[in-house]
Amino acid sequence: MAHLDEVIARVDATISENVIEHMNELLIELSDDAQLSREDRYTQQQRLRTAIAHKGHHQREEAEERRQALTKGGTIL
């Protein structure tokens, strides 16, 4: 169980870092982790996938807000 606890802590830290590249790297690393059960590996990978999806959605929302702010009352110059 100690290895699983370490993996959970790493996933937590990587998610809190909020950097998609690091989340993807850990996602790939977990694919090769033979010490985890298939279910535990899947659970931690899903946490990373969900965080990546939320980050991507948030970035799209921010880009749209910036575009709206720039075009408010006219067009982008």
TrEMBL record:
Stretches for region Disordered: 52-77
Ranges of compositional bias, category Basic and acidic residues: 59-68
Pfam families linked: DUF2526
InterPro entries, alphabetized: DUF2526
Protein name: YdcY family protein
Organism in which the protein naturally occurs: Dryocola boscaweniae
